[in-house]
């Protein structure tokens, strides 16, 4: 399965003079930490959607393409995953996602470009869960990863019947209605949308 990091948002709620994917937390930029964990997972290829809102993110990724292999946890192994840049309009998340869909021929994992603490093990768990439910019910095309609202470490922007969507999904390149399954994940994954979120990440060492 391929993955898509959505890294083209404006990040206006954070109100900092830096693009969100480039925020450095615990000595590593958010975008680099996401790439690191994807490279060490079962993901085959990594696509990163950037836009006119995130020119420095695009520049950073391109400058580091050759060096991302240093993130492989086992120095004796290599990852065949390739990293690709997709340039979108930056209009909004849904519109940009639609612009990315033609790059995929089968279901793919999407992640918001401001996620902290998404580990390789978690990525593999999500992929395997999706694979298992599709074997049992071939009508399922999409997966939405959520956490119970009481387990979310910050103030959620969305309350979906007691759950907080984490910005992690598996979707089909079929642009029509997709039957979706919820996957409840009890891990401290956080979207860095506000200064409050950033403070929690730093203070709690997520």
UniProtKB/TrEMBL annotation:
Enzyme class, first EC level, given as a word: transferase
InterPro entries (alphabetical): AdoCbi-P_Guanylyltransferase (IPR053669), NTP_transferase_dom (IPR005835), Nucleotide-diphossugar_trans (IPR029044)
Highest taxon above the source species: Archaea
Gene3D superfamilies to which the protein is assigned, alphabetical: Spore Coat Polysaccharide Biosynthesis Protein SpsA, Chain A
Secretion signal span: none
A molecular function GO annotation: cobinamide phosphate guanylyltransferase activity
Boundaries of every Nucleotidyl transferase domain copy: 4-150
UniProt EC number: 2.7.7.62
This protein's UniProt keywords: Nucleotidyltransferase, Transferase
NCBIfam families per the UniProt record, alphabetical: AdoCbiPCobY_Meth
PANTHER family: ADENOSYLCOBINAMIDE-PHOSPHATE GUANYLYLTRANSFERASE, MOLYBDENUM COFACTOR GUANYLYLTRANSFERASE
Protein name, per record: Adenosylcobinamide-phosphate guanylyltransferase
Organism: Methanococcus voltae PS
């Amino acid at each position: 399965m391929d993955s898509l990091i959505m890294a083209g948002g404006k990040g206006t709620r954070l109100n900092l003079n830096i693009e969100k994917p480039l925020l450095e937390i615990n000595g590593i930029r958010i975008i680099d930490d996401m790439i690191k964990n994807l490279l060490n997972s079962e993901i085959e290829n990594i696509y990163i959607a950037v836009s006119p809102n995130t020119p420095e993110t695009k520049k950073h990724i391109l400058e580091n393409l050759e060096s991302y292999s240093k993130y492989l946890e086992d120095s004796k192994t290599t990852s065949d995953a390739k990293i690709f840049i997709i340039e979108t309009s930056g209009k909004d998340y849904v519109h940009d996602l639609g612009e990315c869909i033609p790059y995929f021929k089968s279901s793919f994992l999407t992640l918001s470009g401001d996620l902290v603490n998404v580990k390789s093990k978690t990525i593999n768990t999500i992929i395997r869960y999706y694979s298992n439910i599709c074997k049992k019910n071939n009508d399922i095309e999409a997966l939405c990863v959520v956490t119970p609202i009481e387990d979310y470490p910050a103030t959620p922007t969305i309350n979906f019947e007691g759950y907080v969507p984490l910005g992690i999904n598996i979707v089909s390149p079929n642009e029509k209605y997709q039957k979706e399954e919820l996957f409840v994940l009890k891990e401290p994954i956080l979207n860095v949308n506000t200064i409050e979120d950033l403070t929690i990440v730093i203070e709690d060492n997520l």
